[in-house]
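For the sake of clarity, the format in which proteins appear in this thesis is described at this point. The record quoted next illustrates the convention:

___
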Amino acid sequence: MLERAVIACFLRHDGKICLLKRSQAVGSSPGSWHVVTGFLESGVLPLDQAILEIAEETGLVGDTVQLIEAPEPLRYERPSQGWVWIVYPFLFEAASASLQLDWEHDEYRWIDPAELADCDCVPWIRDVWVALGQNLGQRPA
């Protein structure tokens, strides 16, 4: 099976986490709510790729983001499709809630982490959130 490494970055600010709505111009999950993601380029360290993707997709650079958590990668096997995703999860604290999106996303929103359990997002990002040592709570009724 073909393995492909990707990074998945949650941004947190003032207790809320950021979701980004994928534009129709992207190849996967257009129109879905997601986090900062990107393919891990050959020879690049996962953390370096994460910082690059955050800068490209949100405009946050330098000390405007601080690494909080980076656990071991997750493995998602899709034998019927012939591939395996190796996902490197990251949690960063963002100094600002104001983002400058690139072409990959149409909009963003900051949500209470408890809302992640039942929000309209790419399903596997919930696994990334849990891998970061975070609770996947239910939204209050």
About this structure: The longest strand covers residues 2-13.
